[in-house]
Amino acid sequence: MTAPKSSQDPALTGLDVEDRRSMLVDAEIDDVPAAEPTRVGSRRSLAYLGVCLVLIGLNLRTVFSSFSAVLPEVTADAGLPGWAVVVLTTVPVTLLGVFAPIAPVLARRFGAERVLLGAMAVLTAGLLLRPLEAGGAGHLPALLAGTAACGAAISLCNVLLPGVVKRDFPDRLGLMGGLYTTAICASAALGAGFTYPVYAATGEWTAALQVWALPAGVVLLLFLPLAIRQRHGRHQAARGGVNVWRSAVAWQVTLFMVLQAMMSFSVFAWLAPILRERGVDGGTAGVIVSVSILLQMLGSLFAPALATRFRDQRAINTVVALMTGGGFALSIFGPLELVWLWTGLLGLGQGSLTAVALTMIMVRTRDGHTAAHLSGMMQGVGYGVGSTGTLMVGQLHQATGSFAAAGLLFLAVGSLAAVFGYRAGRNRFIG
Length: 431
What we know:
With 431 residues, the protein is mainly alpha-helical. The chain has two domains: 12-239, Growth Hormone, Chain: A (Up-down Bundle), CATH 1.20.1250.20; 243-431, Growth Hormone, Chain: A (Up-down Bundle), CATH 1.20.1250. 74% of the residues lie in helices and 1% in strands. It is built from 18 helices and two strands. The chain has helices at 17-23, 43-57, 62-69, 71-78, 82-98, 102-110, 112-129, 140-168, 173-202, 205-210, 213-228, 248-277, 282-307, 314-333, 339-363, 368-386, 388-400, 404-424; strands at 31-32, 236-237. Strands 1-2 form a two-stranded antiparallel sheet. α7 packs antiparallel against α8 (140-168). The two termini are 36 Å apart. It comes from Arthrobacter ginsengisoli.
């Protein structure tokens, strides 16, 4: 059952229904026969499903921002070597790319709802496992295993959740698409803003990390009855269509996504430690990062509508890429008295940059099948290679003892993103 059709959706500001439909890429679009909507028995059950999907989105970024909020405390108390800090900030992003191609395969075999349920179970277990101590081996084994589990689970949700929203709420895409994307941004903001206060209240970084298993576990229990009663038939993958891997346009869009991901996840992993190294206390650093992430919502709300108003997207892609790289560098080099300005610029730029990179899926393809293939390419390569951003920041800090080199790095990354954003923004189609 789906919601009744409406001629006007008040949440569709700037983008019409077809635009929203295209931006929510369906990972199951190649299934033969086509995947059926989630079986619900009433409007109330459909609304319950919508709440569950939004709550899943609200748990997809806390693993990144919560760890960085107490990184100095974890490093000192657990005695983490430098390589371990770099790995712990890099692995979850890398796994977003590694597991992205697996998600449609699992959904074809078990159904998207049950894969989402399994992913939430793995995410909850990973969040519980992260802070545990493994006897004489210390905290490191559990941190590594728990972080890897979280990265794999989030990757599956990243790929499947937009398609389920699109499939089950075809006439409410403005509302559901907005709630879903807002929930993901809010997830990062909550992790950044509340982790350090929990540490300050308890005196234990383990409690500050483990607390995020609670909302994930609640969503798991809420979604359980809906997911387990779904029936799933046999599906195969349709063959044919445009080969995006051989398209120059697809590679330009993907490289734009790579550079965007390098900056985006480096902010989640390192902005709080950067501010704390500059002398900002842990609580204030968490609030600054949280506000910067909230400003991302503003950028992500308006940037796609603005981008689709132009004949091409060269100008907006270039501007938001330079805003992000410049905001990141100024957060490191700029006067500390203006840190709210620098991080605000970074937040607006980063939210807009992420949104316009994803908008390229819509404006550079002619059909849903090509869009799904481009999305898979962008996520697999984008997150897999984009994780080198967090890796390089960690290695540069370890080698030089400061974040100054990282500031120069992201001036370069922002400039390259502007170049590839300009090329990806030209008015052309894949195939």
